[in-house]
């Protein structure tokens, strides 16, 4: 096999990362464990793509496969039209020049200044001194840290350290940036600043960004599309709004529940029924069921009153979604008619304890 990474035959220009039936197995004693299990996935050039899952889902192993730090057990993986799976380490080192990486714990060298940290990958890549210095200055200005060039990592806040990490990852002009739990060690305000910077990287530099996270807020604030992982497999995949406004799997529903109140659980339903004498229903709110307000606005004409007793709404990609639990008060026939009419514009479910 050539020392250079083989070009994929007839690469699709709009596909940045393509995984075809990729599996990564690890051996523990006599047992074999699939951290990534038969994953097929395409990440488009220029998008911000999120991979979300709880601890042990396989998302960090997946990102290590993409940047060649782990080798695939089976399947094919290409990045920017070049085959990554099955290549020698010398070829993978070359490929990594096109892949930037930022980490949860920053991974900065404490004995080096901010400028020296950003310059390091340029030295490895063989850039001459003058070009290195110009590029370091450019990157530090881009991330808003030009005044910190001579500082050391222990003199910086967590957010500043992560911005140095982003500058370093961008130094060699990669076409792909991988962010592995890059905001998990940061407070909410600093997380927002770092995510805004990643959006700037994507919008102004045209770099494809892949975000690995277990935080729903990260996905909702930055990503175009999302893959939900569980036990090494991708269990849901699609546009962020579509996946989280109507989650199909239990794991996706758990993530959505961290940001917006879901339909009442059995215990919650019992408590609600004890406090409210009316008929309780849960309705789904999505961008497509605009008729809900119209139906509710005419309830008085039908002799039915309603109260919102539980629920919540969230906005993703400029569109709203969520759940509301309503108490309907009135004659049985009138309430039944209202429920039937609501059922024509949204999903309606009786709240049962």
UniProtKB/TrEMBL annotation:
Domain ABC transporter, by residue range, is 17-256
What GO CC terms are in its UniProt record?
plasma membrane
SMART domains according to UniProt: AAA (SM00382)
The Swiss-Prot or TrEMBL record annotates one GO molecular function as:
ATP binding
Checking InterPro entries in the record gives: AAA+_ATPase (IPR003593), ABC_transporter-like_ATP-bd (IPR003439), ABC_transporter-like_CS (IPR017871), ACT-like_dom_sf (IPR045865), MetN_ABC (IPR041701), MetN_ABC_transporter-like (IPR050086), NIL_domain (IPR018449), P-loop_NTPase (IPR027417)
Q: Which GO terms describe its biological process?
A: amino acid transport
Highest taxon above the source species: Bacteria
Keywords from the named record: Amino-acid transport, ATP-binding, Cell membrane, Membrane, Nucleotide-binding, Translocase, Transport
Acyltransferase recorded as keyword: no
- The family this protein is said to belong to: Belongs to the ABC transporter superfamily.
The record's subunit annotation is: Homodimer. Forms a membrane-associated complex with FtsX.
User: What is this protein's function?
Assistant: Part of the ABC transporter FtsEX involved in cellular division. Has ATPase activity.
- Supply the name of the protein: Methionine import ATP-binding protein MetN
In its UniProt entry, the species of origin is given as: Rothia aerolata
